[in-house]
Design goal:
By secondary structure, the protein is α+β, with helices and mostly antiparallel strands. The chain has one domain (17-272). 18% of the residues lie in helices and 24% in strands. Strands 4-16-15-11-12-13-14 form a 7-stranded antiparallel β-sheet. The protein has a 3-stranded antiparallel β-sheet with strand order 2-1-3, with no helix packed on it. The two termini are 35 Å apart.
Length: 276
């Protein structure tokens, strides 16, 4: 796994920079330092614009393609269309997460054993479902979410989650064991018979990059990424950093337009309200 330079959100470099469309590649605008390209749409194809001055960096995993640091991503996968940020779903400092980490790793003196204990608990104790369905009722108002992303503290309580929810929890637990540049929740594609969108956890260890699959209790705790060729990474993130593999797109059920949209989870109005 290549080393990652520290970055969380895109910060314009020179006083004047150029935004362009990576899809049609024929639209550009000169922009001042206050404009963030990845929060703008191409007027022709509606794709998210990119900054021509953005410098590609190497990142987790040696996944084919250039890995670039991108803005934190707005998502709406809760009730009443409530917006949030992608990094909000990794919560290593939450008391429930820290308590569970301490319980699972008590007496374990080896880091690999502690990582394995966390992975096995999430795989075995949190029931996997393809879609989490939820309903909330507040003083006469109700909201139904048929594909709910729950935060790790709630997942610990409900013990149910899809691949993303289970990966949020495991990443949160492991952030109490590893620094931010060594553990990422990964959204991407799994080519296993019928290809589709998937989520898992990627680790950067001395042994090389490892993949942790949270949805199959019988799977090994860790598998070398070099051997796990059916996994195609698109987004890497944790509570501090967000990256995307340039030119990669997620498949259903987590369809994505490169680097910013997360399919039905994205709330575009929420993006527009946070341009400044």
């Amino acid at each position: 796994m290549a080393q990652i330079t520290e970055a969380h959100t895109f910060m314009p470099g020179p006083p004047l920079h150029t935004c362009y469309c990576p899809s049609c590649n024929n639209y550009s605008i000169e922009a001042g330092p206050s404009l963030v390209c990845s929060l703008q749409q191409c007027p022709q194809c509606r794709a998210i614009l990119r900054d021509r001055n953005e410098t590609p960096i190497s990142g987790p995993g040696g996944s084919p393609g250039t890995l670039v640091a991108i803005n934190d991503q707005p998502v709406a996968a809760s009730f009443f269309g409530q917006g949030g940020w992608l990094t909000d779903f990794v919560t290593p400092k939450a008391s429930d997460v820290q308590d569970l980490y301490k319980y699972l790793t008590k007496g374990l003196t080896n880091s690999i054993d502690r990582i394995t204990a966390c992975g096995k608990w999430v795989a075995n104790q949190v029931r996997y479902v393809q879609f989490v369905k939820g309903k909330i009722w507040i003083e006469g108002k109700s909201s139904v979410q048929t594909d709910l992303w729950t935060y790790p503290s709630m997942t610990i309580k409900t013990r149910v989650g899809n691949c993303a929810v289970k990966s949020f929890l495991l990443t949160s637990l492991l952030r109490n064991e590893l620094p931010a540049n060594e553990v990422y929740c990964t959204l991407g594609n799994l080519y296993n018979g019928k290809p589709g969108g998937h989520a898992w956890v990627a680790l950067k260890l001395q042994e090389g990059e490892q993949i942790m699959e949270t949805t199959v209790p019988s799977a090994p705790a860790m598998v070398s990424a070099a051997k796990a060729t059916r996994y195609e990474s698109v987004h890497y993130f944790n509570d501090q950093e967000v990256y995307a593999v340039e030119g990669k797109t997620q498949l259903v059920p987590m369809a994505a337009v490169y680097s910013t949209w997360l399919g039905e989870y994205l709330n575009w109005l929420y993006i527009q309200d946070h341009r400044t």
